[in-house]
Amino acid sequence: MTETAASPAADVMIEAARLKKMYGRFAAVDDVSFAIRRGEVVAFLGPNGAGKSTTMKMLTGYLTPTSGAARLAGIDMAENRRDGAALLGYLPENGPLYPDMTPRALLRFFGEVWRVPRRELPSRIDEAAELCDLRSVMHKPIGSLSKGYRQRVGMANVLLRRPEVLILDEPTTGLDPNQILQVRETVRRIGREKTVLLSTHILQEVGAVASRVLFLCRGRLVFDGSTDEFLAGGDAESRFYELSREETAARAA
After folding, report:
1. Which CA distances in Å does 181 have to 185, 186, 187, 200?
2. Mean pLDDT on 8-31
3. Helix (H, G, I), strand (E, B), or coil: what is residue 172?
4. DSSP class of residue 176?
5. In this structure, are residues 84 and 75 in contact, taking their beta carbons and an 8 Å threshold?
6. What local confidence, expressed as pLDDT, does residue 251 receive?
7. Coil, helix or strand at residue 120
8. What are the C-alpha distances in Å from 68 to residues 13, 16, 23?
9. Contact 101, 109 (CB under 8 A)
10. Cβ–Cβ < 8 Å for 40, 210
11. What pLDDT sits at residue 6?
């Protein structure tokens, strides 16, 4: 893969440049490189233990690479995490929510924690609520909401700072079919304006929300291409199995 120079001028918002993470002699992530441009929604796929979460933690600055670089809009996250974090919205699989609060109270609380200007906070809360379709539940306790709504509250919280980049870790895990459709629609809306990297085990997400696929197996990037290219050889489940099997066979040879 040709390494891409990351800079705002080039519209590269997320870059992994020969990322490697070692735990003793085990390579959890092994020489992974890719670049994601402004406005792309990219699905990050791979079997359990492939290194997806480790890669995402390096991209968000929570882990330091053993070698290589993780950059957001050209900012090296190991060297300048504070400035990079200002561009980032990160939603882990189980994001922090307070069940006794309402969505509006939660967003107001985190807005104050993040020092959103006081005069801007009400409009930013309304903006995030509209984008995540939360207007009908803004005054209900979060603990009384469905898991789908709670996930959308988490997304609204991430969007409150108006980040340029969103990294979402398994945002539809454990949701029922209706809730999955609602969250997918939210991701599609967000993706019209933001750069989104979406880690998922639900393969239907690929065609539903993403224009591009990154596939990681045993710490290595084994596919980087459009959704159409990923699905050209069959359905998503078949391609998932095929890429996993090919990498396993190559390692064994």
Report:
1. 6, 9, 10, 14
2. 89
3. coil
4. -
5. yes
6. 57
7. coil
8. 17, 8, 15
9. yes
10. no
11. 40
Stretch (H or E) spanning 151: helix 147-159
Question: Are 205 and 181 contacting, i.e. CB atoms less than 8 angstroms apart?
Answer: no
Is residue 139 classed exposed, middle or buried when 0-12, 13-18 and 19+ CB atoms within 10 A define those classes? exposed
Under 8 Å between Cβ of 217 and 244: yes
pTM score of the predicted model: 0.83
What's the Cα-to-Cα distance from 174 to each of 110, 171, 192, rounded to whole Å? 25, 9, 25
- Residues contacting 181, CB < 8 A, separation 6+: none
Lowest-confidence pick of 98-107, 164-173, 230-239:
230-239
- Residue count of the chain: 253
Residue 107 contacts by C-beta under 8 Å, 6 or more apart in sequence?
Answer: 125, 128, 129, 156, 157, 160
d(CA 22, CA 178): 40
Angstrom distance (rounded) from CA 99 to CA 115 = 23
For 105-115, the pLDDT digits (tens) are: 999 999 999 88
